[in-house]
Design brief:
The chain is of the alpha/beta class. It has eleven helices and ten strands. The chain has a single domain, classed as Spore Coat Polysaccharide Biosynthesis Protein SpsA, Chain A (Alpha-Beta Complex). Helix content is 35%, strand content 22%. It comes from Komarekiella delphini-convector SJRDD-AB1.
Length: 279
């Protein structure tokens, strides 16, 4: 291992490039551990903009024309891609609001750290299926079970935008199962959307890693702020940069990011209108 602890994220395509720059700036404000970026469909001429942040390594993500599918495949490859004994994975549209050293400390005891989805009940996970959500609600679990996912009424939907894991045999087995069940999802696109939560929950249900569920303050999706009842300080804000509140933008504000943001307005596509997200 090159380092005991480190971060990893995914950048597939230019739509998330501005998010990733601010992701790196937020990590470096609070942490000095190495960062790995799994990258695809980004011109190499732009790599120095990412490498401007200290101790950043770029590794190729699994290539795919669809950057959303490339991102899904990269998430399946996190175990192999990580050089660390303890890894914190964060989506590139995440902004740290403070240090999260406690997450690394939890990994001394647990194989996996996760946060539940805003809507954690698999039986209500109409977001995974194609069709009108109000019509699908009674059939969510039967449809997921019918294609071979080992889910039950008490199965939980997790938000894969945040996860932390340590290198163990059980964690390796989890990612192997994650890949297996995601292939099932891909092969049933007539029924399912191209999302990974069902496969992720299936891998958890199959492997049962020793895990700790962290509160939503570690993966706070501001889009769903009305769904939370939070009293504690938010540590990890999950929000694409254009929609980010000013206090969070101030976290990553520097001469470098101010100059970059001017460049982004002219030369980068608007990640909010990414057409691949609807595929």
């Amino acid at each position: 291992m090159k380092s005991k602890r480190g971060f990893i994220t995914i950048l597939t395509g230019l739509y998330s490039f501005q998010d990733c720059i601010h992701f790196l700036a937020a990590i470096r404000k609070f942490h000095q551990e190495p960062i790995i970026i799994l990258i695809d469909q980004v011109p190499k001429v732009l790599y120095p903009l990412l490498k401007a942040f200290k101790n950043v390594t770029l590794k190729p993500a699994p290539a795919n024309e669809n950057p959303v599918l490339a991102s899904r495949h990269a998430k399946l490859a996190l175990y192999e891609a990580s050089d660390f004994e303890q890894t914190i994975y964060l989506d590139s549209d995440i902004c740290l609001l403070c240090d999260i050293n406690d997450v690394f400390e939890y990994l001394d005891e647990y194989d996996f750290l996760l946060t539940e989805d805003v809507q954690p009940y698999i039986v209500k996970a109409t977001n995974l299926l194609r069709g009108k959500q109000q019509d699908l609600l009674p059939n969510v679990l039967p449809i997921l079970q019918s294609i071979g996912l080992p889910l039950k009424e008490d199965s939980v939907q997790y938000n894969g935008g945040f996860m932390a894991f340590r290198k163990t045999e059980i964690t390796k087995l989890f990612f192997d199962k994650f890949k297996y069940y995601f292939e099932i999802v891909k092969n049933n696109q007539d029924k399912l959307l191209l999302k990974d939560q069902g496969a992720f929950a299936s891998a958890i249900a199959s492997v049962h890693p020793k895990m700790k569920i962290l509160p939503p303050t570690y993966n706070y999706l501001s889009k769903w702020q009305d769904a939370y009842n939070i009293q504690d300080e938010i540590k990890v804000l999950h929000c694409t940069y254009p929609y980010r509140p000013q206090y969070a933008k101030n976290i990553t504000r520097s001469l470098y990011t101010r100059v970059f943001d001017r460049f982004a307005k002219v030369f980068l596509p608007n990640q909010v209108t990414n057409p691949w997200r609807t595929k």
